[in-house]
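Running co-folding for aspartic acid.
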Amino acid sequence: MTLDFLGNLQRTHKCGELRVEQDGQDVVLMGWVNRRRDHGNLIFLDLRDRTGITQVVLDKEISGEAHKKAEAARSEYVVAVKGKVRRREAGLANPNMATGEIEVVAQELLLLNEAKTPPFSPAEDAIANEEVRLKYRYLDLRRPQMQHNFELRHKVARAIRNYLSDEGFLEIETPFMTRSTPEGARDYLVPSRVHAGEFYALPQSPQIFKQILMISGFDRYFQIARCFRDEDLRADRQPEFTQIDLEMTFPRQETVFRVVEGFLTAAFKTAGISLTTPFIQMTYDDAIRNYGIDKPDMRLPAMVDLSSELTPELREALKIEQNLPVLGFAIPNAANLSGTQFKALISEVRSFLGDSGLDYLDTARLKSSPQFAPLEELIVQKLRSGYLAFLETAPHGAKDDNLLVGVITPKLGTPAKWNHDPQWIYKKVGALRLELAKKYADKHKLFEQTGTEADYKFAWVTDFPMYEWDEEAKVWNAAHHPFTSPHEDDIKSGALFNDKGSVRALAYDIVLNGTELGSGSIRIHRKDVQAEIFRSLGMSDEEAKQRFGFFLDALEYGTPPHGGIALGLDRIVMILAGATSLREVIAFPKTARAIDLMVDAPSPATDQQMRELHLRTVVRT
Ligand code: ASP
């Protein structure tokens, strides 16, 4: 086939732009053949570019030559069309297309490039095999949904950039080739050619650099930064991902919160959602007590503490441990279960609880006993009033509540783990609440998108514990990265040195619909406190000096109080796009096994590269 040259031809419009107002105009369009329909003397080409699709008509009577070329054109050919806009005849308009009231009658058709038959057509909505999509990512990205996702991503990032710039933040780049940054994952390493046996680490985050920028007096920093973490990939993780990373001097926690609420409001506005600020704020303890998790999903009613309803006598009669919490929760609109379904549910719940020492209390059975019937009534009443309070924040919750009630009790005898972690019961019941909410999502519909602000339940979680107890190793581990400041009162009181379990961190998370969008903290700005934290993490002064000596030095030259946060941009865009995977909003993502299927990475290095890098592969058998 002979291909045409573009020459000096220029587009007058994009494929999504023409309307009846342009009826009669001469236009030039260029794009890909989305679909071709051959009706003999008439051939229709749907021409596609990023902006949309226009129907082009090739009429043998009007332009024989163009019609002939159109006979040769196939899906995904790249063509240019010179023609005239024509209003479609009554009844032939397509209300599903933005350009559906017009078509372009071609006078000339240029075949600019041909295309092999693609493994899947970008014109199809449903494409089953994700591996094929990732291998032929350039075709996948041609799909209107993907083009929409990346336009949205661009707009969100731009809105955030603009907002932060207006608030006095400077965008400053930090290095990719650096030293290890302790965020709790493995590093990706880059071998040095010049320094045999030495490695750069790719940053797990710009954490240390952004703190140094505060020491350098930049006052407010941000970066839409790539981070690299070599973790075992879960479904919603990528080895490299993008954070909205920021840091500021002299902040209170609230200063950080207001900035984040501001840029999220700007970002959500680009997707047509207006957010109400400030967001709800709760302490870590409250989050655990009410939701059993540090990232509460407030699209569902909170748990209800029924401990006081279970009097000592009732506990004794029902063989319930005296001093431990009894927790209940309600799943709206899910109570209509058949006897068999209900039995299956109870055994599912019991197997979820396993040998934890917790048990499901069958409230339905309480009803039949005069001794326990009032208790059943009380429980249902309490859960119902909890649900009614919740409804005020969840306008699309079912008014006809029909609550499926779950009450979980601690059996007699205390399993050891309750002694180490009294919050453990809340966590276990919280996990069950989420599990059942997922199971009955079709019934309560509380996860369904309504396209309004009500779909997005934000919360700040504050006052995290500074340390977590590792029962196996019998040590306290930092719950956050080691630059997080303990609460000032807990430094003053000496708890930092002698009562680690009670120390609160000035750390905060921002949570949306049960996922953590980001986390941050007020940082340590004093060398003595920083050294103590390293020490308490089991790092000797020697090791701290070796790994972070430069930073400890910097702390000695007038470090201002500072703090910041980082939020996952990929996740924010994913949520706004209504996508279910980060791969839908990352142009060239990796698979769950960290492979880029398009470029086929990772791949072996050549012998010469290995020699230059002073490396040798030893395959262990
Ligand atoms: N560096 C932290 C992270 O990547 C965020 C922060 O503390 O600002 O999670």
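Result summary
Residues 183, 205, 207, 481, 519-521, 564-566 surround aspartic acid (CB under 6 Å).
The two ends are 54 Å apart (CA to CA).
Job closed.
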